[in-house]
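Hi there. Long-time user, first ticket. I'm pasting a complex I've been working with (about 520 residues overall). I'd like to know whether the download I got is complete or cut off, because the file seemed smaller than I expected. Thanks.
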Amino acid sequence: MTQPQYPSSDTQWPRWEVFKQDAPNRPHQAVGSVHAGDPQHALLTARNVFVRRPAAVSLWCVREDDILTATPEELTTNFALLDTPGEAGTYHVGVKRTNKRSMTFVDLSGTVQASGSGDALRQAQVMHPDVLAWMVFPETAVVRTDEDPGTVESWFAPAKDKTYKQQQHYGVIGRHVGELKRAGLMPGRAASEEGA
Amino acid sequence: MTHPTPAQTGITPGETAEQHAHFEARIARGEKIEAGDWMPAEYRRQLIRMISQHAHSEVVGMLPEGEWITRAPSLRRKTILMAKVQDEAGHGQYLYHAAETLGATREDMLQALLSGKAKYSSIFNYPTHSWADVGMIGWLVDGAAIKNQTMLAGCSYGPYSRAMVRICSEETFHHKQGKEMIVAYAQGTPQQRAMAQDALNRWWWPAMMMLGPHDADSPNSGVLTRWGIKLKSNDEVRQEFINEHVPELLEAGLTIPDPDLHQDEHGNWRHGPIHWDEFWAVIRGEQGLNKERLGARQAAHDDGAWVRDALQAYTDRQRAVAAD
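Hi, the file is complete. Here it is re-exported in full:
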């Protein structure tokens, strides 16, 4: 892949999509992105931005240029996405399953062997025909935190002790809010978004 | 005779009625619009404007409170304030990401902030005079922000909605730590009570104003509502904010600086007239600390240049080594 040149410190670095795993045996989920010059910088920035609270055991970062994303609507007008070139090998597949209120985009759901990005997208579409978005990227593009207990401890444990960041740490005054809600003076979530 | 602009109709030349009907039907079904989907150019423009302003507000919002970190009265309060300011930086990052999915670049957005072209919430141009302001900002300003952001968490654009859900879950801590602090001072010594009351006197009206102009004077609301970006009007969100906060402030023993404030027969708290001249003067930077805030942001940007240069040099070196 070609590396753009950046003439000054005021020009942005490449964007990396960040995937966070909340607990062992849970899928990595796309949480957002960071800008970084190199893989280590990307992982450190991802931790600072997305792991200021507990619940993380692993972070992955993938350069935006290495990711192919599509929605069903996009594929109705842009078939060429299925011909996107790329190296042959193992590809990760992420899918978005619901429109419910959420703080994550796709869940990574497994891998496929593909001849390129477009082929991986085609396979993802066959495996998961009824989802709201697909994402694929090659395994070789992933940079990740180490899985050994020492790394997990030093990277992710400090957030656990900072209980003052949790709202449960503070007492509640004003029980009236519940009463207001019942009286219809404090509308909560729209009914269509309940249950997320 | 003048033709209506895209900002009024939502339709940009080149877009068809069919495209708009399909798009609006998706929103009516409660679907989220994702980055690759077709969307009206005006939807994209309005979202970039709103999300980048929102991101700038998070970033500038670090300044009034950051000034107080070194003067926090205890280690506990200091760690809380540091975590809160750090959160605001993170929230700016989430939001810049959401705007980037629409094609805006980080560089352009930062430039628009530093040049004064882009706006941020007027609330951050007010000075923080005492330590109690830190608590009152948490209680009122973050309280008002949460009301607005909870609404936006349900908006039709997927990346913005997801950033809002993440922000709201963290922002609740900001609100509660402020409330806890002010309640403690309101029950404390006469000096502490006076400090809490003084902070309320200065922050009440700015917090009311930060939820935006009255519905009748809100120029962008039409298409924003139609396209599921704003699910409630400014006045509705303001009413929710008042209904939640007035009883709690009164319960804490504080006096709200609005002689006309009263509860109507439906149980809604009704406020007196708002002085919008001040709001617009602060937005335009004629009043308040706009110059100082942008100066501090520019200084932070300039002072951080060596870090960016060092990281770039490391990146270049790694690449050169890899190429050998």
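A couple of notes from our side: Residues 92 and 111 of chain A are 4 Å apart (CA to CA). The longest strand of chain A covers residues 89-96.
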